[in-house]
UniProtKB/TrEMBL annotation:
Limits of the Aspartate/ornithine carbamoyltransferase carbamoyl-P binding domain: 59-202
Gene Ontology terms describing biological process: 'de novo' pyrimidine nucleobase biosynthetic process; amino acid metabolic process; pyrimidine nucleotide biosynthetic process
Function noted in UniProt: Catalyzes the condensation of carbamoyl phosphate and aspartate to form carbamoyl aspartate and inorganic phosphate, the committed step in the de novo pyrimidine nucleotide biosynthesis pathway.
Pathway per the UniProt entry: Pyrimidine metabolism; UMP biosynthesis via de novo pathway; (S)-dihydroorotate from bicarbonate: step 2/3
Listed GO MF terms: amino acid binding; aspartate carbamoyltransferase activity
Protein name (record): aspartate carbamoyltransferase
Species classification: Eukaryota, Viridiplantae, Streptophyta, Embryophyta, Tracheophyta
EC identifiers of the protein: 2.1.3.2
Length: 365
């Protein structure tokens, strides 16, 4: 297995706090022909995942930083975290005792923020949090993101950041000397959501190879579908269907990436036809907050594609409906009782994935 790295303007390595400093892994970064940074190292390339390889995650910024071996390793740790969550007396429930996580959320969040905070507490750590940091932090006074990060890293061991600007997480990671997790950066990416989505697909469908995936709704502004497209493209025999109103079609950068990665994709205006073919129907809401003053465009897009009983009737028995939540009217409540409605199980899986990431970022493998 080769060294992999993040895409970023600079090349550097971080030193992170370890429970056992004398056993901390050496970190290094190298330069490629294109700018790279935040490398994770592989001490012994021949070591199997089950033997807990010496990958070193430094930050979680974008889906492209992962490969299939690393994903498999993260998913194995997530299963371990599920066992810990179900047994509060487990020794593992105190593995992050003495660690502090800072959550900086410049945009609203329920599931992401609470699941990260729950993940930290279930592993014995503590949380420093600010909600609506855009208004109720020094950002309202004009403080730069970089200055905020430099300050907060003095109080904590890891930072979880949600920001309204695409690329903000990369800026934060380039500034911080402690791990940074991207919890969503505007219309950019949401890599931890993509991780939990792929983990959910694996658990619900039983495989990740040969998946037919329908992405529905706001594909232009949806950071969740962008991150998921990058991640699922790492598996063979994938086909992706894009179903969206014209004003929020999937952007060309994702289409070009899929084409270059050998992933088959097509656009469709027929949700019923797509749903009949797919293993996963991944619905998203039309994001009013991304339309600015163009409310007319929002109203034109809203309600065009809805998952309801008609969609369930054409779906295959093994297929599932997923949604990153929150939903508005794009999935009717009558769908909730169908066993193929996986979105609340999907949200719960987010806890296990985020527990795994906190463990790996702070303690290693």
């Amino acid at each position: 297995m080769a060294l992999r790295s993040f895409t970023s303007p600079a090349s550097f390595a971080k030193t992170h706090k370890q429970i056992q400093p004398n056993k901390a892994l050496p970190l290094f970064s190298i330069s490629f022909s294109t700018p790279k940074c935040h490398a994770y190292t592989i001490k012994n390339p021949t070591t199997s995942l089950k033997a807990k390889p010496n990958f070193q995650l430094e930050d979680v910024i974008e889906s492209q930083q992962f490969d299939r071996d690393l994903l498999n390793g993260i998913f194995e740790v997530a299963q371990e975290m599920e066992a810990i969550e179900k047994d509060v007396s487990s020794p593992g429930s105190n593995m992050l005792k003495g660690y502090l996580m800072a959550t900086l959320f410049y945009e609203p969040s329920t599931r992401t923020r609470l699941s990260f905070e729950s993940a930290m507490k279930r592993l014995g750590g503590e949380v420093l949090t600010t909600e609506n940091a855009r208004e109720f932090s020094s950002a309202a006074k004009g403080e730069t993101l970089e200055d905020t990060i430099r300050t907060v890293e003095g109080y904590s061991d890891i930072i979880v950041l949600r920001h309204f600007e695409s690329g903000a997480a990369k800026r934060a990671a380039a500034t911080a000397k402690i791990p940074v997790i991207n919890a969503g950066d505007g219309p950019g990416q949401h890599p931890t959501q993509a991780l939990l989505d792929v983990y959910t697909i694996k658990r619900e469908i039983g495989r990740l190879n040969g998946i037919k995936l329908g992405l529905v709704g706001d594909l232009a502004n949806g950071r969740t579908v962008r991150s998921l497209a990058y991640l699922i493209a790492m598996y063979p025999d994938i086909k992706i269907y894009f179903v969206s109103p014209d004003v929020v079609k999937m952007k060309d950068d994702i289409k070009d990436y899929l084409t270059k990665s050998g992933v088959e994709w097509e656009e469709s205006s027929d949700l019923l036809e797509v749903a009949s073919k797919c293993d996963v129907v991944y619905q998203t809401r039309i994001q009013k907050e991304r339309f600015g003053e163009r409310i007319d465009l929002y109203e034109a897009a809203r309600g065009k594609y809805i998952v309801d009983k008609k969609v369930l009737e054409v779906m295959q028995k093994h297929a599932v409906v997923m949604h990153p939540l929150p939903r508005l009217d794009e999935i009717t409540v009558e769908v909730d009782d169908d066993p193929r409605a996986a979105y609340f199980r999907q949200a719960k899986n987010g806890l296990y994935i985020r527990m795994a990431l906190l463990k790996l970022l702070l303690l290693g493998w």
